GMC family oxidoreductase N-terminal domain-containing protein
Amino acid sequence: MTEYDYIVIGAGSAGCVVANRLTEDSETTVLLLEAGGPDTKPEIQVPANWPKLWGTEVDWAYSSEEEPHLNGRKLYSPRGKVLGGTSSINGMVYMRGNRRDFNHWQELGNPGWSYEDVLPYFKKSENQQRGASEFHGVDGPLFVSDPVAPNVVSQRLIDAAIEKGYGHNPDFNGAHQEGAGLAQVHIKDSKRQSTATAFLLPILDRPNLTTTTHAIATRLLFEGTRTVGVEYLHNGTLHQVRVNQEVILSAGAFDSPKLLMLSGIGPAEHLQAFDISVVVDLPGVGQNLQDHPQVHVAYQATQDLEVAPTSNIAEAALFVYTKSRLDTVPSLQTHFGPVIFVQPEYARSGPGFTFAPSITHPLSRGSVSLRSSSPLDPPVIRMNFLESEEDMQVLVEGIKIARQLAHSSAFDEFRGEEVTPGADATSDEAIRDYIRKGCDTDYHVVGTCKMGVDSESVVDPELRVHGVEGLRVVDASIMPVITTGNTNAPTIMIGEKAADLIKASDRISKQAALTNA
């Protein structure tokens, strides 16, 4: 049986980073397994085309179960099934989160994850178009840029925010987060910069890296509680490979807990219901699911708004504190784009623009569980949006703020008919009814393999799975609490920090072996 020092499962936002950093040592062998294929689909590289990727062969196209607080609707949740993972099909927004997010992670019992600890890893990845500074780096492989040709109405969002007293913020990843501004993106030379483009493709010829696409991991292999390998399905045939050091699970917030449970790590009663032998009873696996619930406030435009091919659509953003949730971080993020972007039943042709208010820190929690013991069946996803009344209140306020901005003088020459919620939805109850009909996911799923030391945590602060040896989870699922804003940049940071943790552990092991020799 073939052996590698490390096996990385998932070539996504974190997995590509880990594979890159571990193979910097030419003596370290790495197998990278990706369930999807190469990132050769032309639409991937054209920034404005990302919505066209949903539902195609590069998307897992997951959906939740019927959501009890959203009129029984199922929520569609695109996830990348391709080299680069979701970084190959997302909106390319580079948003790190609030410094308070990471300080909170540390306060929850995760030393080494404060803002001061993680900032160097953000900077390590980054090749910032604006140059080096206290907050930004220029030596990393990920090119971070300003929008090339932002639409005129995206600029008007900033004018509207200034007019209404919210202020302008030229750098959401700098000294503070609140205010309105154009969102930086990972786009270079008018093409998407996924983690595959930035971290993986330049190193595919390293002799110590083996990358296998169309490889679906079916279970982890154990000897007792020691992880010794991985079983995967490739071209209809099952293969097994052994690992000398560690398996790094980077399959994302839906599939990482799914593979753990299929392999016997998870809530014992749930696993036994599917006749899965329990390796470790970890009740937190699949729990703590978080995302950013969002709604859309859309308007027809009175004149044509040409969207550049280099546009990522979500060109601008606004972070504000709300009256309904006075918190240490902004409680509302509003994305803004120069198109009508709404649920299909509200679809409208022609030019327009959309505000998309979302809750930065929802109180509601969802879950991921097994549908069956087959690795080919999708997991059972329950987002559980708006279980908390306070979450509903934040979205109601978000819609009111979006309308306030839309009716500022900055939008007077562009504002046409309100498409959603619609001019008749004026009372709070009418707005709530619209939210139940139109609330959607912001596609920022995290939290299902929570980092921590409590009874519900899945990994420790070094991302090692509790109760077993030789296994770490490295992706967005380890976030104990979701970050304030888009989650791709912090997931890349997690990959960077994890690679250093893995290297440090390897050095300690080798030193111990020499001492005992």
Q: What stands out?
A: The two ends are 27 Å apart (CA to CA). The longest strand covers residues 237-249.
